[in-house]
Amino acid sequence: MALTADRQALIWKTLNETRGKIEPSEYKNYIFGIMFYKFLSEKAQLWLDEMLRGEKWADIWAQDPEKAKNFMQSRLGYVIEPGDMFSDWKEAINTDKFNIMMVKDALTRFDNGVSPEAKSDYAGIFSDIDLGSSRLGANAQTRAATMMDWINLMDEIELDTDADVLGDLYEYLIGMFAANSGAKAGEFYTPHQVSDVMARILTAGRENQESYTLYDPTMGSGSLLITTASYMKNAGVQGAIKYYGQELITTTYNLARMNLMMHGVEYNDINLRNSDTLAGDWPDGTVDGVDSPRMFDAVMANPPYSQKWDSENREDDPRFKFGVAPKGKADYAFLLHGLYHLNNNGRMAIVLPHGILFRGAAEGRIRQALLENRNISAVIGLPANIFTNTSIPTIIMVLEKNRATDDVLFIDASKGFEKQKNSNKLRQEDIEKIVDTYLKREDVEKYAHVATMDEIRENDFNLNIPRYVDTFEEEEPIDLVKVNQDIVSVEADIKKEEAELLELVNQLAVNDDSKAVIDSLKSLLSGGNHE
């Protein structure tokens, strides 16, 4: 079953009513954390019900805690001890035995019980749940009351165990929190419509591959990874698709880990790192002086735009062989990092500001090198104001490692959108048109053009879209005769209305007080001021 829009809106309304004074950007950490713990707890309980066949988890644990711990770790990668299940919290609430330490102790034990193989997937994943924060209440009692409200709320949100339904809700809530968290929200969220365009382009013609590796070096909440994988035939097959990603902000990194697992991705298919992509390369890079980077089938990214970065002493970094991006604008640094990790038959899609298409100096030299090396396949102009953290128009650039041709497809999709309250949104027909145009790779009047390298050289390797796609709409010629006729007609109507009003004024009763005013009005309406 799908989660209906009405159901989504009701859940968001209910969540908002329990937020109190906590800002949305902070509130999401508690809500997603509790939701994820409930998900892991119910997953563990379902597995235990199947494995124990009537025996109680508490009894198994009492017999040999270490053996019981290893038993659950070997399959799930984590351990939830008896008494620490989400259902145990709920029962404690119902019997007036709940206190805030139950949650704190359970989360501590969970963290300590993660298997060594799953450390990168689960360790510290609940670190953003600050149970001592005064935002929850002035003392332990009021904080416990707040936590009980949230646990009850999560319990009331009855979710199908289908990962698609749970994942859809999670993605919906991520989007809603992003829309309500201010400018910084863009650090963790890419609108689903943009993700969809990128995913369909990345997987086009490759949907049936038995195995596939995905990499997002600025993954945010992980939505680009999830959406791209959803178009692969083996998306739900354990081991078929491997997810790789890096994220600098720890809170967002935790969000991404939760997001992938809430979408049904097994922990041993997830390889995410909490690190600075530009400062340190993926750890499989240079080993003992030998460059042996990990390569991926698809690379996708929506990095922070024109961010400052440490560009010093980067000339020998193999990622930046085409040039070093200026320290005030890391756009090409992110692009080159992603391209470097793309395998020979891979495809890359990255969202960037328009400035990368025409800025000169170091960026101009990098752009020319990429073009002459046949790496740039397409440039797609998106509408303005479709991201939560910026109103500027952006582009999707599509790149490949080894192309047979050197032409570049330009698509101007900036005018196809639906206007919403505070933003613009790509409609389904807009998405279809972009993807269809990309796949056909043909000229479309006032929308797309396949530019030859000769054209691009003539433009000094400037890729500004209006140089290649003419979207100018000629205005209808002005019919001066018709305009003059309209003026004559309007003047005739004015004279007629004035005459009728003058007749009404002549019928007014006049006394000494009003005579001067009425005489003045008659003079005005008699036409003396019209020449």
Question: Nutshell version of this structure?
Answer:
Keywords: Coiled coil, Methyltransferase, Restriction system, S-adenosyl-L-methionine, Transferase. The chain has helices at residues 5-17, 24-52, 57-63, 65-76, 86-94, 100-112, 119-122, 140-156, 163-179, 192-203, 223-229, 250-262, 331-340, 361-372, 428-440, 453-458, 480-506, 512-525, and strands at 212-216, 241-247, 270-274, 286-287, 290-291, 296-301, 342-353, 376-381, 394-400, 408-412, 418-419, 424-425, 448-451.
Question: Can you describe what's shown?
Answer:
The protein has 18 helices and 13 strands. It is an alpha/beta fold. Strand 2, helix 12 and strand 3 form a beta-alpha-beta unit. Helix 2 packs parallel to helix 12 and helix 10 crosses helix 11. The relative contact order is 0.07.
Query: What does the overall shape look like?
Result: flat
Please tell me how large the radius of gyration is. 31 Å
Low-confidence stretches: none
Q: What is the average of the pLDDT values?
A: 86
Widest beta sheet: strand line-up: 3-2-1-6-7-9-8-10-13
Biggest beta-sheet profile: 9 strands, mixed
The helix count comes to 18
Strand content bin: 5-15%
Q: How many strand segments?
A: 13
> Which structural category do the helix and sheet elements fall into?
alpha/beta
Helix content: 40-55%
Euclidean distance between termini CA atoms: 75 Å
